[in-house]
Amino acid sequence: MIKEFRDFIARGNVMDMAVGIIIGAAFTAIVTSLVSDLINPIIGVITGGIDFSNLFVNLGEGEYASLAAARDAGAAVFAYGSFITAIINFLIIAFVVFLLVKGVNKIKDAASAKEEPAPAAPAGPSELDVLKEIRDALRKA
Does the record bear Translocase in its keywords (predicted)? Predict the structure, then answer.
């Protein structure tokens, strides 16, 4: 059983998957920082500083000034603002990832275009073809 497990781990695809997960985690930190530190402030300026994350409907008794206060009090809330914020963040992150993938694909296409050999010049007629043409020309004469 240990030998089978070792063989399973030693397969290339398992190691590739592990590397992909590690790179994905690091990439997630970069994209999250890009969205929260660079893009969201610009959107905040455009929307006039509206903070959707604090929008909620209290489903129970009492009045609360903020979503955090309502949650701290244990009140049942319908936090639709957090959902809107999550959707906006998803759309921004998906667009940023799309742009990054598009850029990487463009670089890969450019690299593969350089690696492809230029098509060979078209070959002229073979010796046999030339001899056949001469034979045909002599028959006509």
Answer: no
Same domain, 32 and 55: no
Distance CA 132, CA 137 (A): 9
Q: Determine, yes or no, domain membership for 20.
A: yes
Q: What whole-number distance in Å separates Cα of residue 109 and Cα of residue 103?
A: 10
pLDDT in tens, 34-82: 877 887 788 778 877 777 778 888 888 888 888 888 888 888 888 888 8
Domain hosting residue 106, numbered range: 51-118
Asked if 33 and 63 sit in the same domain, the reply is: no
Tokens of 13: 């695809």
Q: How far apart are CA 67 and CA 87, in angstroms?
A: 18
What span, in angstroms and rounded, lies between the C-alpha atoms of 75 and 68?
10
φ, ψ at 58 (rounded to 5°):
-80, 125
Residues 23 and 3 in one domain: yes
Number of domains in the chain: 2
Classify 39 as helix, strand or coil. helix
Q: Do 107 and 78 have their domain in common?
A: yes
